[in-house]
Structure to design on (886 residues):
């Protein structure tokens, strides 16, 4: 068969390539058809078995429902038979009591009759505490003969005993209500569970006569067909209970004395006991219907029942001699059987959901088994396809398509590819790119294939060499640039021959591009060096006469000038200083770029350096209302070795920018000590609450002659060289500088520089002495505490001057306190003869006595120490008060 299909394919396309393709297509097609066809047939068989199992279960479920229906029918018929027997027993005892009247005392009969008439033709008759009271109601019985009335009252008296005996016989009276009505419809005897008041209220009748007429109509329910059932016939009908309105089974029996009708007994029985008995016999949905289609009792609701359909199928079954009728409405099934004791039908119904619920475990088990079989089947088929037939087809595909694919790849490659015979040097397979390269080399007089085979064979002879990479230079006979080819080769076998697989790429364009880039880079560097030399030379030439200008301006300032002239002179001096600063920055930037920046390592005190920078910008900060803080961490050594001048230059630029770009708030200079594996670094930070910068502005921050924003020059001025100079200086010192900023919040510039710590030597000037310290500014309180503790003092921090302990005011105890600026005069006056040191941003660098208090700048540690030492020498407690820096 395979040959037949293969020949059919070959007739469509007889070319060699088409033959290979047809063989491969036939293998794939029929292998897939066999696997899929067999798998589908087995799957259909498994599913068919599952369906057959479901059908068998459905038949079994229908048989069980039919059995349950027969049990329900037996229970219903037994229930009705028991009711009939109880009713007939009641009727027999009543007729017997009517015929055999007890010999009651005439006086008792007269009293009962008188009470009955006096109560408006109403009396409750009872034969004792254990009897069932009977309520006698009359309408027009006052005109009856005395003997007739006495006889019915005596019957009511007897019924109280008969009802008790009937209840004791096994029939509960809790679900029954009964009454007796004479043939004239004028006397009514109500049993237990019924009263005149309840009946009037429930039926809506206005008087007793209408009520008796209403119940008389109800009693005729069974009397109409009594003759057909014999003398003591019981006729059952479904009615509404006159009191509760609930469905009830009405049984009517006619009592007779020979041929004379005594009256009619009517019993109203609730359908609940019948429904309860049916639920015990049948766990499904079944119900009892009357001949006119009303529901008597049941275990469910007949909402989907077509009454006409039920009647038609029941009659059809009786006509054909069957006792059971079955039919279907959509997906719901019905079973109908007639109840022998009454003109009723018993109906059982179920749907597909009931069948599924009944066989849920069976269906789950069967479905799991079927799923497992299907999964195993298709897993096996998949394994056969991928592990058995798949590899075979893959090998066939490699055989049929290997060469075509290889040729296509070679042709599509962007480099020259070829297979060269290692013995002859002839190309076995090559692409168009290789063919063009070989032709171009041949035009230049070079045999490219032979050179490639010789060089590759020589390299591949080396040990541990599997790939040979080399360059082949093809000179130009006209003196132009040679063509350089990069060749990669490795040994291979093709169609029984030893070949070289070679990949060839032309490097001439890349080499030419690299040379052009190198020339452009050298030209740019030369231009940059020329620019730097020009800027340095021009800046130096400009700085020389500028110093002369500044000198003459200083001399002019010492002459007699009026106020306007002095103001103009100050502006000219400021402009000249700014120009000199720009020139110095340009010179330093040029030196840093060229690598000729001088770095002189010297010993310095970091605290003094920060104070010097802060003192320089303090007037400008105070003029703008800024708080300028200096904070030095405890871990920072007292003395360091490093390029102090360049560190101070970077710090000045950063603080200058911070004060310039901060309209309000504070600027903080902070020093920290950062240990490192390669040494230690001094970390300086300038923190401001200025305008901040965006991410875009941060990207351009350290570029020379570039401002963060185009509006910066207009709003704040500057050349845009300060931060780029800071970066170059940091790089020359081996350090780093970076910034972080948030628009509208502020910026943080961090500058780290490697330095060496100098071991501490000397004595502590304030050793074994106590100093009180008070300051409302937490930052300055910590900074001044650090200074005092570094000098050896024991610092006692108090929050308010009023809280100072009295014993610390003794003359022999040194006392230092710091308060806000408004409290300075108060502290000085309260100290009396004692020395008070007022520390503030606007204080003098050297301590001075003013208004009985020492005054010194918070940016002068030496001044503060000098004030403390002078006070201590005089033996006077010392009080230091710091001005609030918020």
């Amino acid at each position: 068969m395979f040959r037949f299909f293969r020949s059919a394919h070959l007739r469509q396309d007889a070319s060699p390539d088409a033959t290979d393709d047809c063989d491969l297509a036939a293998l794939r097609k029929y292998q897939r058809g066999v696997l899929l066809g067999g798998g589908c047939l087995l799957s259909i068989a498994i599913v068919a078995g599952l369906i057959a199992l479901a059908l068998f279960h459905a038949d079994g479920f229908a048989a069980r429902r039919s059995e349950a229906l027969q049990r329900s029918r037996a229970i219903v018929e037994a229930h009705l038979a028991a009711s009939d027997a109880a009713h007939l027993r009641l009727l027999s005892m009543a007729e017997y009591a009517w015929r055999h009247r007890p010999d009651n005392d005439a006086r008792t009969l007269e009293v009962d009759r008188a009470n009955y008439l006096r109560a408006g033709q109403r009396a409750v008759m009872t034969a004792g505490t254990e009897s069932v009271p009977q309520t006698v109601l009359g309408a027009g019985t006052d005109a009856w003969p005395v003997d007739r009335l006495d006889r019915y009252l005596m019957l009511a008296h007897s019924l109280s005993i008969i009802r008790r005996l009937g209840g004791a016989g096994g029939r509960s009276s809790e679900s029954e209500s009964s009454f007796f009505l004479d043939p004239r419809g004028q006397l009514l005897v109500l049993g237990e569970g019924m009263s005149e008041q309840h009946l009037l209220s429930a039926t809506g009748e206005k008087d007793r006569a209408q009520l008796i007429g209403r119940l008389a109509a109800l009693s005729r329910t069974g009397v109409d067909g009594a003759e057909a059932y014999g003398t003591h016939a019981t006729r059952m009908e479904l009615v509404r209970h006159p009191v509760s309105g609930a469905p009830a089974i009405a049984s009517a029996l006619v009592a007779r004395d020979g041929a004379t009708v005594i009256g009619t007994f009517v019993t109203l029985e609730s359908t609940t006991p019948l429904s309860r008995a049916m639920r015990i016999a049948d766990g499904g949905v079944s119900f009892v219907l009357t001949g006119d289609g009303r529901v008597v009792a049941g275990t469910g609701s007949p909402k989907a029942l077509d009454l006409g359909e039920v009647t038609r199928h029941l009659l059809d079954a009786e006509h054909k001699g069957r006792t059971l009728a079955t039919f279907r409405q959509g997906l719901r099934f019905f079973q109908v059987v007639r109840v022998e004791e009454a003109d009723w039908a018993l109906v059982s119904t179920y749907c597909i959901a009931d069948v599924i619920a009944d066989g849920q475990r069976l269906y789950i088990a069967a479905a799991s088994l079927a799923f497992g079989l299907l999964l195993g089947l298709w897993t096996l088929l998949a394994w056969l396809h991928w592990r058995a037939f798949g590899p075979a087809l893959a090998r066939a595909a490699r055989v049929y398509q290997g060469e075509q694919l290889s040729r296509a790849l070679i042709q599509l490659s962007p480099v020259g590819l070829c297979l060269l015979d290692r013995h002859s040097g002839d190309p076995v397979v090559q692409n168009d790119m290789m063919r063009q390269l070989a032709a171009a080399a041949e035009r230049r007089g070079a045999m490219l294939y032979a050179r490639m085979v010789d060089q590759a064979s020589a390299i591949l002879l080396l040990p541990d060499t599997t790939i040979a990479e080399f360059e082949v230079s093809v000179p130009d006979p006209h003196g132009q640039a040679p063509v350089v080819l990069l060749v990669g080769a490795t040994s291979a076998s093709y169609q029984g021959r030893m070949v070289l697989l070679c990949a060839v790429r032309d490097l001439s364009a890349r080499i030419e591009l690299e040379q052009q880039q190198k020339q452009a880079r050298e030209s740019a560097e030369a231009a940059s060096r020329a620019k730097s030399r020009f800027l340095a030379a021009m800046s130096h030439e400009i700085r020389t006469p500028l110093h002369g200008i500044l000198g003459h301006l200083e001399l002019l300032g010492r002459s007699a000038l009026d106020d306007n002239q002095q103001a103009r002179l100050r502006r000219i001096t400021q402009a000249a200083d700014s120009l000199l600063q720009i020139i110095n920055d340009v010179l330093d930037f040029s030196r840093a770029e060229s690598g000729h920046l001088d770095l002189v390592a010297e010993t310095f005190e970091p605290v003094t350096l920060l104070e010097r920078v802060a003192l320089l910008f303090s007037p400008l900060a105070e003029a703008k209302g800024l708080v300028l803080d200096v904070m030095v961490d405890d871990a920072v050594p007292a003395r360091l070795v490093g390029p102090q001048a360049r560190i101070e230059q970077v710090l000045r630029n950063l603080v200058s920018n911070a004060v310039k770009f901060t309209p309000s708030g504070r600027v903080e200079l902070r020093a920290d000590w950062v240990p490192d594996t390669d040494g230690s670094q001094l970390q300086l930070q300038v923190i401001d609450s200025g305008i901040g910068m965006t991410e875009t502005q941060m990207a351009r921050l350290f570029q020379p002659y570039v401002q963060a924003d185009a509006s910066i020059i207009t709003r704040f001025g500057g050349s845009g060289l300060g931060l780029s100079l800071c970066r170059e200086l940091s790089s020359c010192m081996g350090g780093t500088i970076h910034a972080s900023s948030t628009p509208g919040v502020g910026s943080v510039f961090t500058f780290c520089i490697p330095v060496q710590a100098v071991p501490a030597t000397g004595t502590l000037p304030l050793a074994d002495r106590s100093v009180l310290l008070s300051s409302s500014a937490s930052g300055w309180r910590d900074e001044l505490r650090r200074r005092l503790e570094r000098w050896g003092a024991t610092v006692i921090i108090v929050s308010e001057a009023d809280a100072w302990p009295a014993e610390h005011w003794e003359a022999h105890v040194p006392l230092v306190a710091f308060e806000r600026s408004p409290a300075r005069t108060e502290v000085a006056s309260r100290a009396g003869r004692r020395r008070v040191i007022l520390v503030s941003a606007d204080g003098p660098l050297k301590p001075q006595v003013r208004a009985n208090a020492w005054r010194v700048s918070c940016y002068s540690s030496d001044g503060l120490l000098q004030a403390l030492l002078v006070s201590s020498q005089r033996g006077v407690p010392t009080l230091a008060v710091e001005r609030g820096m918020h």
Observations:
- Confidence is low (pLDDT under 50) at residues 1-16, 168-172, 222-233, 874-886.
- Residues 550 and 576 are 7 Å apart (CA to CA).
